[in-house]
UniProtKB/TrEMBL annotation:
Name the UniProt record assigns to this protein: DUF4258 domain-containing protein
Highest taxon in the source lineage: Bacteria
Length: 82
């Protein structure tokens, strides 16, 4: 996905983070529009579930955690730093 200069300007003006645009691209529901375009948005259920998951994730991010990954990109283990 590329973001046009117009969209970047509107994000800045409207306080919409580029990370949120990426999140909507990953999780948003598509609604077709005229002109071969579509809207990406989260329904209320998805918004609520995502907020709950993000709160839990934020708690985990604040702890010192690490992941061990193999050369072939497999997660071997995870742990807390002591």
């Amino acid at each position: 996905m590329t973001i046009s200069q117009h969209a970047k300007k509107r994000c800045q003006q409207r306080g919409i983070s580029p990370d949120l645009v990426l999140l909507l691209n990953a999780l948003g529901m598509e609604t077709q529009q005229k002109g071969n375009t579509y809207v990406l948005e989260l329904d209320k259920h998805t918004q609520k579930a995502l907020c709950k998951k993000l709160k839990r994730l934020l708690t985990q991010v604040q702890k010192d955690v690490f992941v061990v990954i193999s050369e072939d990109d497999h997660v071997i283990t995870t742990a807390h730093k002591h």
